[in-house]
Amino acid sequence: MIDSRLLNVFAVVAEELHFGRAAQRLFMTQPPLSQSIKKLEEMLKVQLLTRSTRSVRLTPAGLELQRRLKQLNKDTELAIQAVQQVHRGEKGRLTLGLTPSASYSNLSQSLYSFRLQYPEVVLDLKEMNSSEMPEALHKRHLDLALLRPPFADPDLAPELIYSEPLVFAIRQDHPALRSGAKSLSLKKAMSFDLIGYARQSSRYFSQIFQLLAVQSQASPRIVQESMIPTILTSVEAGIGAAIVPASLSRLRADTLAYLELRNVGAIRAELLAARHPANPNPAIDNFLALMKADTSVDASG
Q1: Which of 104, 132, 269, 280 could form a disulfide with 247 if both were Cys (CB 3.0 to 4.6 A apart)?
Q2: In whole angstroms, what is the distance from residue 26 CA to residue 124 CA?
Q3: Considering the entire predicted model, what is its pTM?
Q4: In sequence order, which residues have a C-beta less than 8 Å from that of residue 133 and are 6 or more positions away?
């Protein structure tokens, strides 16, 4: 392998085409500089320079070596830049697990902001149930999971990232809306025929609904069970009303009305971010920082 110092000496001489100036730049005298060039030529078994009392010129072999050294320097700079970008989380891949019910929050804005700021990071979105995410994080199939509280194992550093109120979803032509009400009490909401949440497929929101029932001190009339977002289909079909996260109010606004719920206390729909503590991917922190900037933990919906 050729000594990089010899290549550096040649590169300076090839640029200056003057041994005196090259020696000054390299902080050495001309005799060892000449010896370095001679040694390099012997190693390569080619003549790199033609030298006279008046000029120094590159041979065709010398021109080729100069060209390749310039390209090598560019490649080295690019390699260093790429390594630094990966270190800063500006390049690479981020695999994000997303619970379906979170896709209606402000998450899309965070994803858009991340893609704008970090265009060289590939975002791999995987929609999956919250119950599947802890194992995926442990197996490193995910870098970051956005999931509901009951499924966030303590060892995965769960962090509250988004919180939103609950609203009452009902058809716009329902007789209860003739008064033009924009809100109603939780106890009043519990008096309607309601679409509840399936305990197996929508465990978190089933728990939320049970907390609301306790808070209201009323016995809700559950006429059907469903899950987000298909619960709105049942509401639109007139089967019953539903209590849903405020972010769902962006859907079916032409047929459904969403009323503010009063007297719910501190009960809100929460979304957590979880990661494996040993995962070194710096893009995780970059995404979380953007998400915190784009979505308020105390979102009003």
Answers
A1: 104
A2: 49
A3: 0.72
A4: 97, 99, 142, 145, 147, 151, 274
Those residues with Cβ within 8 angstroms of residue 86's Cβ, 6 or more apart along the chain or in another chain = 92, 282
Q: How far apart are the first and last CA of the chain?
A: 64
Angle, nearest 10°, between helix axes 107-117 and 283-294? Answer: 130
DSSP conformation letters of 251-294: SSTTTEEEEEEES-TT--EEEEEE--TT---THHHHHHHHHHHH
Interatomic CA distance for residues 124 and 135, integer angstroms: 18
How long, in residues, is the chain? Answer: 301
Percent composition of the chain: helix, strand, coil (DSSP 3-state, to 5): 45, 25, 30
Domains of the chain: 4-87 (1.10.10.10), 92-162+271-294 (3.40.190.10), 166-267 (3.40.190.10)
Which residues are CB-contacts of 179 (< 8 A; sequence separation ≥ 6)? none
Q: Which amino acid is at 241?
A: A
pLDDT, one tens digit per residue, over 220-267 is: 999 999 998 889 999 999 999 999 999 999 889 899 999 999 999 999
User: Smallest Cα–Cα separation from 232: which of 168, 178, 162?
Assistant: 168
Euclidean distance between CA atoms 177 and 179, whole angstroms: 5
73 in Cβ contact with 265 (< 8 Å): no
Instruction: Output the CA torsion sign for 118, 122, 127, 129.
Output: negative
